[in-house]
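Hi W.,

Here's what went into the run:
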Amino acid sequence: MTWAQLHADSERLAIEAQLAARARDMARAIDLYKRAGDLERQALDQLDVSKTRTRGITAVSAVALWFKAGEYALAEQLAHSMLADPHIPDFAREDLRSLVQGIWTESSKQKAGVAFVPGQVLVSVKGGEVVTGGAPLDLIVDNVQTIQAMFYRTIEYVNGVSHRRVGRPTKELQESCRPWLFQSAPGSYQFSVAIQKPAQPDFFKPAIEPERIAQHFLEIVSASSGEGTSVLEKLVPDENYRSTFLKLTRNLAPTGKTFDRIEFRGSGETRPVALGVESRVNINQQLRKKPPFPTTVGEVLEEFRGTLRAVHLDKDWLEVVVDSVSVHVEGLQDTVDDVIGPMVNRAVIVRAVRVSIKMLKFVDIELSD
Amino acid sequence: MQWSQKPRLVEFQRPDVRVLNAWANNIDTTESGAYGVCLAAVEVEEQLVAVRRAETLTGADWYVAPIGTEPDDLESCFRLEVSGLDAGGRAEVAARLRQKVEQTRRGASNLPAIASVVGFKEKSVAIQKVGDGG
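Here's what came out:
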């Protein structure tokens, strides 16, 4: 049989497999993916070495199909043999490396003896002080905490939980959907995050597809950093949730001082959702589209750059120290724990409206370092 | 970016309740709808037709080639990068296309590609070819 015939047969089986997976018939989907992978592997063998693009595309396809079938050993073996081939084009090399990363993480998850919700997010922090495989500890700890907060918020949102202003997620959620961090092959500083599968089968509402959580997370990050507001408004109609997601995403976006870029990829995806220094501008535009409260003539917006020393969400105030002088700001409105909590003792920019000589009314806060 | 002012008419069967229920997932529906519209758009505008589908880890890539190309291999094909937006106007479509082109450039290396965004609310399709490094 020719490459064209074998590839066409593989293609048909892969489409059937995708339909079976969509219908939640995973046993059939896995069998079909395995057979599609076998055919794609045979198709690859039919190709002359001069057909570099076709070989690259077919090799990636075969490895991906075996990966989807859970045939990690076969997938890894083929990926490595193709990576060792000097004729494989760069685009395929990049895809194969991403696939190998996915294979390693999936294999680690199997060995952990814990079930995970399908899908994971690979996070890469780049530029500035970040080097290949290494990064300042506080930078990574901050990012990991914010990503954990965003995952919890995503799960609460898709599960129809009311918007939480103070405190941590419920103990049940934290124990049921614990985020795990996996080491990934270094290239900048990388790690992946997977969500532990809840033990109780009815944790998620019937309409929720748990495998969508990682994708939903990525879509929220992408829409939050976009230039318009309508995509995020459609994705997250609830205004409180939308504001919290925007502020959490802004906490992740680089200022350019310690790092330049943070990228998020779905498992095996080569094209990431990226947050750069410019993302903060887009996020701030979205946040400032609607004034936080009506202001009157004479009320002036002021900006304070200093260190956030204290926050009291219940009593509705914060204190920021600017050049050794403490500035008291009231009316934190919809500011939530997981957005402002990690900013304590950090350099921040606070925007507030002066409503009287003694009183400043809170508008917004963001990290400045 | 240039916007073609030439309107195109798409005929489709109005989905019944059964079809709507089968496509209740907004993300899948937008993605599949964008594939259909975009494949039609590149055929009409660029005379390119879908010849092959190849797997990636989380989905699949489509490959398109000039009408009449023998489908013996993928040496002269373009990878079609499709994105669908079920909300937002022309500005959002243009912004998504810029984002898609940038992502495609980073991932494409020496594989020629076409980035395309279908805006369902705006009823527009934006298409841009992204480099061919040989």
